[in-house]
Amino acid sequence: MTFLLRLSTLSVLIQFIQLRCPAPLWDPWQKGGHGMLNLDYRDARPIYEQVRDGLRRLMVTGVIREGEKLPSVRALASSLAINPNTIQRAYESLEAEGYVYSIPGKGSFAAPRTGDSLLGHFDTVTAELLYLGVTGEQLTARVRAMEGGDSQ
């Protein structure tokens, strides 16, 4: 019974994503789950954080585009077979982070993203890392490695 429920949930989620994404952008069966929300009940993180992080990943990678309507709290909760309060908490967290905006009576939508909001978060994290003793050289090396440039 549980297997059939999960299979049904997965099918509904795939249909949702396929309706909103052109096929060349993602492969739902690709290892790593690009384009799907993956909930791992063995993960130490709460389910709402997994939903939040999955939706954030879909927005950052362009699977969910700016201004696109997100599924209703009830619809997503139903398709994932989890409590609607969990989805509501994930949406509220995404809204607080600036990834989502809500219009009362209309729903939640993917917010336009600018580099400024991410740079603000970067500045906060950088300040914390510097306080904890990470050097500027170490941070620079990491950024250069991400760019694919020289890590010296």
Brief write-up:
The chain is mainly alpha-helical and 152 residues long.
Structure description:
The protein is mainly α. 55% of the residues lie in helices and 5% in strands. The protein is built from six helices and two strands. Strands 1-2 form a two-stranded antiparallel sheet. β1 and β2 form a beta hairpin. α1 packs across α3, α2 crosses α4 and α3 crosses α4. The longest helix has 19 residues. It is globular, with a radius of gyration of 18 Å. 16% of the residues are buried.
Protein traits:
6 helices; two-stranded antiparallel sheet; mainly alpha
pLDDT < 50 runs, ≥5 residues: 21-35
* Side-by-side strand order of the widest sheet: 1-2
Helix content: 55-70%
Question: In oligomeric terms, what are we looking at?
Answer: single chain
Topology:
Layout lengths: L1 H19 L26 H14 L12 H8 L3 H14 L2 E4 L3 E4 L4 H17 L4 H12 L5
Antiparallel strand pairs: 1-2
